[in-house]
Amino acid sequence: MKKGLLYLMGVLVFLVLAACTAKESAGTEEENGAANEKKAEGEKILQLNNGEEPTSFDPAIGFDNVSWNALNNLMEGLTRLGEDHTPQPAVAEEWEVSEDGTTYTFQLREDANWSNGDPVVAEDFIYAWERLLNPETGSSAGFLGYFIKGGEAFNSGEGSADDLGITAVDEKTLKVELENPTGFFLHVLTNPAFFPVNHKVAEENPEWHAEAESFVANGPFKLESWEHDNEMMFTKNEEYWDVDNVRLDGVHWVMVNDINTEYQMFERGELDSAEIPAELSDQVIDGDNVQIVDQGGLEFYRFNVTEEPFQNAKIRKAFALAVDQENIAEYVVKNKVKPAHGFVSPGFTNPSGEDFRDVNGEIVSFDPEEAKKLLEEGMQEEGYEELPKVTLSYNTENVNKDVAETIQGMLSENIGVDVELENTEWNVFLEDQKALKHQLSRSSFLYDYADPVNFLESFITGSYMNRTGWSNETYDELIVNAKSEADEAKRWEYMYEAEKMLAEEMPLFPIRYYNQVEVLQEGVTNILRHPVGYLDLKHADKQ
Fold first, then answer.
1. Domains in the chain: ranges and CATH
2. Which of the residues 42, 408, 416, 523 has the least number of beta carbons within 10 Å of its own beta carbon?
3. pLDDT digits over 21-78, tens only?
4. What is the rounded CA–CA span in Å between residue 401 and residue 405?
């Protein structure tokens, strides 16, 4: 562990500099104007940081945390995750499931309305889901609709909307037919990709979601104001069917993409919640006002197998085994995160009650001697006397930089490979990664629904989430079976095998599993964070 201290010294120097150069205007009276006005009127306004501008509040497009964490409080689907993290009735007050598990009939609440007073009807779901799956929409979340009969065919351009298994039985009854029995389908429906869209509003104004003035909500809050790249103000939605149980009057969101600045704002009382900077973790993490929740997700690095030298599996494995996940978790990221020695997060239990992670065990572990051996073998196979230049890319953020620099040091120390670092802002980074312009790049994954196949399906041929150039027919077949097999025990066996194949082929390597750590102001309660799901403020309160 001594070498971890060497990495830590560099991290601390960076963090001190970052704190000194942070956005100076963050948290000023002018920026917090909307919240201050409300507080002066004696209202309960929760103050949160969204990090940056939402990508989109269009449910089919905003496929990321900075969009869906906020959107999950403006809108609501057929089901909503409860305090026990299981699906509960939401817009749908009840449902029936056919004996074969392939047909769901949802009864929508009579008092479910949009913020403009329109009723939420079955056609709003059909409109939204057809748009999600329409290839012309280009939704990155389209694959989530493949459980619906005809969903994949329509999304791939081989079918039509008329063939989709979604029908409005009447204005308040929606029938959904699935391709196969899917035991976790009610959890899938809690995902913001399946939120309804007011079809009348959207047909009149396709950009309804882009500004506060035109936005219509059907969730606990509505969008009162939105100063792009700066702040948003949510207020209680009086048209919401369960408005009597919404305790806050509003939520004020700032957009500060620096954890140190965020924490400073928290200490000044300008935020009610904040992440804990790594260098303060030891001092703060065990406080009574700290909330820690496990999160289904993984930080990992992708290899681009279409670029040298990562076309060679042994070279990829050498890089992976040269990285000490324990060191990164304990000394760099901190905040009680767990090192990742597999790809599927802990917390998913099979039909026998066993955790996926326990059954498949540690399949990617730090082994510098084996890494050296594999690197030598891989270079011989490729005829390399010298390894081609390698650039490690990451998106701009303090912790990402710390981890990247630590990996850079480990590769140099453990296998004698010097890599260059490159960082870009998120939107540029993401587009370059999708276009396979990176050689080796930082990545993250948060589960969209509560089943291990959600992560594993990301690496099938042609998946939007793949971004490695890797393709394997056997792996693709395993995932097809893992999504269609009715026998749950067999289905899990397919998933175990698929994960082992990822470790053997190593188109990516794991760093750490995610958790959600936040420090809260006194009197702030009931902020609900799910292991798999998005931030829920419906029952949040502030004294």
1. 45-258+521-542 (3.90.76.10), 294-515 (3.10.105.10)
2. 42
3. 333 344 444 445 556 665 556 799 999 999 999 999 999 999 999 999 999 999 999 9
4. 6
